[in-house]
Give the backbone structure.
Amino acid sequence: MEYLYGIILFVFGVVLGSFYNVVCYRLPLKKSLIKPGSHCPKCKKPLSFWELIPLFSYIFQRGKCKKCGAKISAIYPLVELSTGILFLISYLIFGLNLELIISLIFVSLVVIVFVTDIKEMIVLDEVIGISLVFLVIIRLIIGYNWLDLTLDLIIPFLLMFLIKIFGDHCFKKESMGGGDIKLMPVFGVLLGYKTAFIVIGFGAFLAFPIALLFLFIKKQRIIPFGPFLSLAALILYFTQIDFEKIVTWLVMIGG
Ligand SMILES: [Zn+2]
């Protein structure tokens, strides 16, 4: 039975991933998510039933539009596969309960942030807003205290805001995008505000070597921070490492 649930969650993830592709492609352009139906961006011909099947259509069509032969971006199947795998991992870690739904919402947000922040350097307000509302509601149903949740929402946001003001002052230019600040309440509700602090440091640690690479190889001075923050939060959430305990131990050993 466990295998069956695992397979169902993987397939569910792949199908939703196909929808997230539409979100990532259309929302930044302020286009409708429903109309028109999916079509080839080059020849504009609507996709047939078989061409709409996530993942497999890309493999069978060898990454090309059947009608005009235009290359289909590999991002589409990658998003579908990643969402499927992350849904499966969520199930393997949390099993069938409310925490699984929280995990599915969060990994969906991570996938969308990765695509839009890397492609367009934006984090979609709509996606953050909807995710936050559902995360807070489920945390309340699970039995979290509303006062704790309010602190988890506000404190990481304020801290990141202060870091940005400090960074802008030091570098004399925009040091961080608004999207990075807006992501912080999500990490707070997901992990608690103390672990959300660690997300910032861990995210910077992950971003540093990549930023250096881009600076030296592509002479690019700006890289999106959102994907690194999201990846850091995802690792902390999936591994469930209790950093508060580690810090307490270190303080105890040090003292
Ligand atoms: Zn085409």
Summary: Residues 126-255 form one domain. The mean pLDDT is 92.
